[in-house]
Design a protein that fits this description.
alpha/beta, 5-stranded mixed sheet, 5 strands, rod-shaped
Length: 193
Amino acid sequence: VAQEAAAAEAAESSRAAAAAQAAEVSRSEAAAEAAEWSRAAAEAQAAEASRSEAAAQSAEASRSAAAAQAAESSRAAASRSAAAAEASRSQAAAASSSRAAAQSAAVRGTHVTVYNATRTQGLAASYAQRLTSAGYTSVDAKNWSGYGIQSSTVLYNGSANKAAAEAVGKELGFPVLQTPNLQVNGVAVVVTG
């Protein structure tokens, strides 16, 4: 009986060892499986983080490219606008210059008669030559036989001759006076000294 009890005890001990070993193997397998799940979850999380970072970098690069393109487009538009403004200013200046040249030509083409109101020989001719040298194209010299003029003066009779009279007055340094009953075609310069 003692032998039987010892054998039963040995069998029981063997079963307990086998069960402990099976439990240990099961725990090891469960730990390995848990570790495998943990590694898989970590890899999935790392892959997701990598995809998110790549997407963020791609979005940032796209925003930077769009901003650079918008800035370049804005610079190009500003450059075109500046060129158009400069062209407009140049055209306006050319038109103004053209008008001034036409007006100057009309003024210099107005007939001017220089009158000598003194007894000094050649006085009217010297002023007529001065105007011709300044570009006036229709100038002659005569003796004055009109009313008494106290100082050298430029006379004109109609508003059409006003600009020419003012230009001649400026050229010679004489005052300009409108005289409605002046019987001269164009502008008269009366020189008193």
